[in-house]
Design brief:
alpha+beta; Immunoglobulin-like; six-stranded mixed β-sheet; three-stranded antiparallel β-sheet
Length: 286
């Protein structure tokens, strides 16, 4: 009985699901029988439909009774049964095992040596000189001064405090048809300022423009120092004036952040770099 109740308690959910499915099957059978009874005109088929409807009712009632029985047993009968007490297992008695006495080994005689005989003592004769061992003087241990650890000099701080400026306008290799040339730098590929747009009074952007002079067949250089990160004709750079003097109308330029006492000193070459030189870019003035 206990095993049957445990089975009902363990698989009750499956019994409920089976009963619900049986009720749904009976409802379907009932609907089918009602539909067949309405659509048929023959008395025999109507009687058969009535029999199927009766069987559907029996299935629904039986499934409902089954679900109620399982629920009632789990709710009222199973909790009323006494809890079975586990079987008490008597501890296994350990049989007494008499100690095993092994025969002791026969002691072997040990060889005992006789104590050594003291040598006769010779008394010194009168007038004989006694020799006193001379102990060599030990040299005094001079205290040693611990060596001082070498002074570690801090690494020299780098004078470069900015990244190399990124050249933005004009793009590398661009052909500028206008006479008004504008140059700008310092904005990275994500549109952020990598260096300040306006430098302090003692810091400058040193712009260097070079081209090959047609007449002298030598490199000509234009230098401008400014605090802003862009230049144009308004700030004193008119590259278009040298359009016909440059070989192939090609110009090169780069920018370096420097520290100088004044703009003139910066343009004259008296400065200290604060960033690596930027990459050299080219443009053409056709």
């Amino acid at each position: 009985m206990t095993a049957f109740l445990e089975l009902l308690k363990t698989y009750a959910i499956f019994f409920y699901i089976g009963g619900v499915l049986a009720v749904l099957l009976g409802i379907k059978m009932l609907f089918d029988a009602r539909r067949a009874a309405r659509t048929t005109l023959f008395t025999l088929e109507q009687e058969q439909a009535s029999d199927r409807a009766f069987r559907a009712l029996l299935v629904m009632v039986g499934a409902t009774v089954f679900i109620g029985a399982v629920a009632g047993i789990n709710a009222f009968v199973a909790p009323a049964l006494p809890t079975p007490t586990p079987d008490q297992v008597d501890p296994t008695a350990i049989p007494f095992t008499p100690p095993v006495i092994l025969p002791s080994a026969t002691p072997q005689p040990t060889l005992t040596l006789a104590p050594p005989t003291a040598a006769p003592t010779t008394r010194p004769t009168q007038g004989a000189a006694t020799t006193t061992p001379v102990v060599p003087p030990t040299s005094a241990v001079q205290p040693t001064t611990p060596a001082q650890p070498p002074t570690v000099l801090p690494p020299p701080s780098s004078a470069l405090i900015y990244l190399a400026p990124t050249l933005n306008v004009p793009p590398n290799g661009d052909s500028i048809g206008s006479d008004k040339v504008r140059m700008s730098w310092g904005v990275d590929q994500f549109g952020n300022l990598a260096i300040p747009a306006l430098l302090p009074q003692d810091q400058f952007y040193r712009l260097v423009i070079t081209f090959t002079d047609r007449t002298k067949n030598a490199t000509a250089t234009l230098v401008l120092c400014t605090h802003e990160n862009s230049v144009d004709q308004r700030t004193g750079v008119n590259v278009a004036d040298y359009r016909n003097e440059a070989v192939d109308n090609q110009f090169k330029w780069n920018v370096t952040v420097v520290r100088a006492a004044s703009q003139g000193a910066c343009e004259a070459g008296d400065f200290a770099p604060l960033s690596p030189p930027s990459a050299t870019s080219t443009f053409i003035l056709p």
